[in-house]
Amino acid sequence: MVVTPPNQTRPDPAASLELIKRQWGGKTDLWIFGYASLIWRPEFAFAEQRFAVARGYHRALKMWSTYNRGTPERPGLVFGLLPGGSCKGMVFRIPRAKVADALVPLWEREMPNAVYDPRWLRCETRHHGQADGEKSTVTALAFTLSKSSPDHAGELEHAAYRKIFAEATGRYGTTRDYAQQTYDGLRKVGIDDRALGDLLKRIDS
Prior knowledge:
Layout: H1 13-24, E1 30-34, H2 37-40, E2 48-65, E3 76-94, H3 99-110, E4 117-127, E5 136-144, H4 158-167, E6 169-170, E7 173-174, H5 175-188, H6 194-204
Parallel strand pairs: 1-5
Antiparallel strand pairs: 1-3, 2-3, 2-4, 4-5, 6-7
Helix pairs in contact: 1-3
């Protein structure tokens, strides 16, 4: 059975955006770490993209979505960046002059219910398409999720995933399509998420 996540008092998205702007400071370009839909649908102008690894966090389809990929009555799932392990993704560099214009629609997309915890993560990077290219480290903004958050779905049985994939849909479409698009988008940039691939195979079997 799928349990609807409880109602809760959430942080003010506008306040969290202003905090991030202050922390950024406006003196440098801004790096964004993408680990799911930001890879295949960034929706902001960027000057550069690189392969990146964020240590201490991993990608997991374990965050309730009652807006983008589900509803309060039939919650869906989206990826969260959870503590532990490591995560392969992409970082995108937004030129300093374009950061202000990029952050507002990004917040409207990622933080309509303020479910993520925006954090600055140190990411090991290499230039896109250069498997043996020179590595460097950047500090990037990432949307993380605490395991103690009410939005963390925790461990779900296969039957729960099957039901969510069959029923959950939100303003951006279904959870099923989101999971497939993320898997395909990751593979397009050379990232093989075996756990996600196995889940999709089991759902379709």
